[in-house]
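Title: Prediction job returns without error message
Component: structure pipeline
Severity: low
Priority: P3
Assignee: unassigned

Description:
Job completed but the reporter wants confirmation the result is attached to the right record. Sequence as submitted:
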Amino acid sequence: MDLIDATVPLHRRMVRAGDCIHQAGERFGSLYVLNSGFFKIVNLNADGREQVTGLKFRGDWIGLDGIADGHHACDAVAMDTGEVWVIRYDAFLDAAVRAPALLRVLHAAMSCEIAHDRNALMSVCTLPADARVAEFLRHWVESLAKRGMRTDEITLRMTRAEIGNYLGMTLETVSRALSRLARDGVIAFVEKGRREVRIPDLQALAGFAQRDAAASLH
């Protein structure tokens, strides 16, 4: 983040929940680095249904999908108030000539996105429902931890329906999975609302997912 801020011309844009920074079909011209807040990546299925395909946290890059053919293939939608750094792609390439380390930063971002997409697909294809939700929470918490943010209590910026859409589950199945995690003491809902979730022990959450996945094989 410091290297980008110091070497690349950028525009700081404030966003609020529901704002789009790019939409499917829009011409590609800029990359975006999320400086604060949370984003979801949404694709439109052939039948017109929206599909949540990705989540973005502080430090993540948005808009990489547009590099290949010059147009974005999805929508990038803010889930809360935040700040996005808007970087014109041609300006980034010019800056990279003077500071080659910028290309390593970009390539690392691409590699991380590929790895996460692979792991998310594996989760959807192989894990039972409860383990899938536990893995979703674990990823959310670990993403916050990497960024030095609070992890013992988190606010889910997605509705149960959106979580189900992302994980390939119904809203009811997501609700049942969260209730089971709460009954087992792996998570706890904070009194002020069921989007606020307390995670007493991340290892217990990971262990739950592993046990549930193993049990489904027998």
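Comment from assignee: result matches the submitted record. The helical segments are 2-7, 89-98, 101-126, 129-146, 160-167, 171-183, 202-215.
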